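Entry 14. Structure prediction run on the chain below.
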Amino acid sequence: MSSAQNVFLVVSVVALLSMGVMLLGLSWGLSFQAVLVGSVACFSVACLTTIAALILGVAKIIKRV
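Output returned:
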């Protein structure tokens, strides 16, 4: 795995963890709208970075062939 893939996967995991923390924010008194917007943003970042890491991996495999 390349270093770029590692960075993308770490960002993805951090985004998912922060989404979980935001969902806990509902019990801490954060507004539902703030939690919803933050969670959607974190989920979007996690999906995009995962897709980018997969594309890099596939490109690396195709380049070898």
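The chain has two helices and no strands.
Filed with the rest of this week's runs.
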